[in-house]
Structure to design on (295 residues):
């Protein structure tokens, strides 16, 4: 199933994406919540109710054309966004770094989340804006110290993500700089849907990133150093994972800063990330609007 968060006529809720139609879950079954995290928190009963809708002949009033809605990030307010650095062998090599012995975990703040087709903000504060196409893992239940063999059971699904990075802030040389360089508002596009785990083999998916239709990244998740299950087992050793938490699993080779010469993003650039079986996200780089300034 493909679960989406969408906005229609100023109301945001969740639905099922089927071809070019969205089934509004709040119309198909008013007992279901309108927020994805709340749906995931219901566990198997919630998913069973959605599967009934998926298999039913739903009334016309519960369906909306995809063209009439705005798709949002499947998880709008994740409790945690946990990202992994240097997790593709080829990317570690292009970065002139040793292959990590353990996962390199950092955080992106939840306010960086962006929709699959939302604008990415460029700011005068930095001239080193970069893209990182990545596979996103969405946690489906509260869990801690997850054994490797149990890790698949705690995954709700997968999505496409872009770990947008402000390189000069990221690489200032102290641990806090990673959080600062990775967490700017709008710098975590995700979507277009949460594709449920039963439909995805996460470790053999083709991933491609384009900038202005130029192919920049072309790899497969079989090049991951630490796979999705190993990441969950490792991370959950230290702290609890909760429904709706997102793991950004790492980017393959071909990022802008590693090109010769480096090719950073500029206003007007369009970044498209595609992952086999999950769809694509596409975001335009714009100058940070005045409306984004709050004081």
């Amino acid at each position: 199933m493909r679960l989406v968060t969408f906005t229609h006529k100023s109301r945001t809720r969740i639905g099922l994406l089927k071809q070019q139609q969205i089934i509004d879950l709040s119309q198909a079954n008013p007992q279901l919540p309108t927020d994805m995290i709340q749906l995931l928190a219901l566990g198997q009963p919630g998913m069973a109710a959605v599967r009934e809708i998926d298999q039913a002949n739903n009334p016309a009033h519960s369906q909306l054309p995809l063209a009439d809605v705005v798709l949002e990030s499947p998880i709008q307010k994740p409790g945690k966004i946990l990202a992994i650095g240097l997790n593709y062998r080829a990317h570690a090599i292009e970065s002139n770094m040793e292959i990590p012995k353990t996962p390199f975990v950092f955080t992106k703040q939840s306010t960086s989340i962006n929709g699959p087709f939302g604008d990415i903000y460029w700011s005068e504060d930095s001239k080193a804006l970069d893209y990182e196409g990545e596979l996103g893992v969405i946690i489906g239940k509260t869990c801690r110290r997850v054994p490797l063999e149990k890790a698949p059971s705690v995954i709700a699904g997968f999505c496409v993500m872009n770990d947008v990075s402000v390189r000069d802030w990221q690489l200032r040389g102290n641990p806090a700089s990673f959080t600062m360089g990775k967490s700017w508002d709008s710098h975590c596009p995700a979507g277009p849907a949460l594709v449920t785990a039963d439909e995805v083999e996460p470790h053999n998916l083709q991933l491609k990133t384009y900038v202005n239709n130029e192919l920049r990244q072309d790899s497969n998740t079989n090049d991951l150093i630490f796979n999705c299950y190993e990441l969950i087992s490792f991370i959950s050793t230290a702290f609890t994972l909760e429904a709706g938490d997102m793991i950004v699993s790492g980017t393959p080779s071909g990022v802008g800063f590693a090109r010769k010469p480096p090719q950073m993003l500029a206003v007007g650039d369009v970044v498209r990330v595609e992952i086999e079986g999950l769809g694509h996200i596409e975001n335009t780089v714009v100058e940070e609007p005045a409306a984004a300034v709050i004081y």
